[in-house]
Backbone:
């Protein structure tokens, strides 16, 4: 299978995930007069099954590539070693979620970012999604919101794989820290969409913070901006700051370790120059 197949799987899966976040904006008012979990519970098992299947298929495609390097120049990982490495990284990151945190400052995003940056978008997406899945079982955080958390974390790892591989290690670390700060805010803003469309129905006072059917796009964006500022910005800023601090504090050794494993477990098919036969 080619690298294109892996990218196609992630593209289709991401499109389905984005549609799951946004489809409530096309519902009518009566359909929205329900509790968020009541509505999301119906779709959550379907999205979870799609996400889990997507991760397995993506991993299978990556493992069965014929060899060589991917489009990003990273070497292909041999199958048994890749499975073992991914399992260890997911387990380590899932356990990190058990570490007591303050105001959402979770260390799990740092490793997801580094894995995506070192091993590429496909590996990063699977790492992010499976980390949230496993950690949910460890922490008891199972609910209809889980597939959306998996999508968000998967997109963190996916986009980390798109970052340029800077030669200067300090510049690369600063880039990853800035990237982590951006996603610290973006992750919260994205996950708010899980419940925001269902917040207004049943409330007596609109307060200009909630979405209702019939609003123009500009008004929707304006209302969501106010809602985010009031309910989430402080929380997400703390997560962004913590991600930056962790990236800069432990990023150097972690990146070097991951790069070492990538070089050790990777393999590339090199084209040999065969001498021409002269008659």
Residues:
């Amino acid at each position: 299978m080619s690298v294109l197949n892996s990218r196609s799987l992630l593209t289709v899966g991401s499109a389905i995930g984005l549609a799951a976040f946004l489809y409530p904006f096309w519902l009518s008012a009566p359909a929205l007069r329900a509790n968020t979990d009541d509505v999301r519970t119906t779709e959550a098992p379907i999205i979870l099954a799609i996400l889990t299947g997507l991760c397995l298929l993506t991993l299978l495609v990556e493992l069965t590539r014929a060899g060589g390097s991917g489009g990003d120049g990273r070497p292909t990982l041999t199958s048994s070693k890749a499975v073992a490495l991914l399992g260890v990284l997911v387990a380590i990151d899932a356990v990190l979620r058990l570490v007591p945190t303050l105001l959402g400052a979770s260390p799990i995003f740092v490793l997801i970012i580094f894995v995506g940056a070192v091993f590429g978008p496909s590996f990063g997406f699977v790492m992010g999604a499976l980390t949230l899945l496993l950690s949910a079982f460890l922490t008891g955080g199972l609910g209809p919101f889980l597939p959306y958390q998996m999508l968000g974390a998967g997109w963190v790892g996916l986009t980390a794989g798109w970052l340029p591989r800077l030669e200067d290690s300090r510049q690369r670390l600063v880039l990853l820290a800035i990237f982590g700060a951006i996603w610290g805010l973006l992750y919260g803003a994205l996950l708010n969409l899980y419940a925001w469309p269902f917040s207004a129905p049943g409330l007596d006072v609109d307060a200009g913070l909630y979405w209702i059917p019939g609003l123009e796009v500009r008004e929707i964006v304006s209302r969501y901006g106010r809602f985010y500022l009031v309910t989430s910005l402080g929380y997400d800023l703390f997560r962004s700051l913590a991600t930056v601090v962790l990236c800069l504090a432990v990023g150097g050794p972690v990146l070097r370790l991951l790069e070492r494993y990538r070089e050790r477990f990777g393999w590339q098919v090199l084209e040999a120059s065969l001498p021409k036969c002269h008659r």
